[in-house]
Design goal:
With 109 residues, the protein is of the alpha+beta class. The chain has helices at 16-26, 59-65, 68-78, 95-98, 104-108; strands at residues 2-9, 36-44, 49-56, 83-88.
Length: 109
């Protein structure tokens, strides 16, 4: 798996409620993106900076997503050039799923 952190400082303060509306409006665009496992929409109202965390199946799919069109969309939507950090994801702990999965011993029986 592969993680991409996106940081985009906004030029003017925006209320969290307004950002949430923007995030909800964009939510459907991410439902069918090839290779995208999960996306978090985050916002720090105090410093008016948006953050997104993307979890991808692999690095190739992740890097393919962040081209000129992505930057253009971020400029149009938030008047911000995103800062991207690409990271190899070595381990994910997901407690919401963990409790629903059978224990290894149970699965082997």
């Amino acid at each position: 798996m592969y993680t991409v952190l996106v940081r985009y400082p906004l030029p003017v303060p925006v209320a969290s409620e307004v950002m949430l509306e923007e995030f909800r409006a964009a939510e459907a665009m991410f439902e069918a993106v090839p290779g995208l496992i999960r996306k978090y929409f985050c916002y720090d109202e105090e410093v008016h900076t948006g953050y997104s965390v993307y979890l991808w199946e692999d690095e190739q799919q992740a890097r393919a997503f962040y081209g000129r069109e992505f930057t253009k969309t971020m400029l149009e939507k938030f008047d911000s050039v995103p800062e991207l950090t690409f990271l190899d994801t070595l381990l994910v702990v997901d407690n919401s799923v963990k409790s629903q999965l059978p224990l290894r011993e149970e699965a082997d029986e």
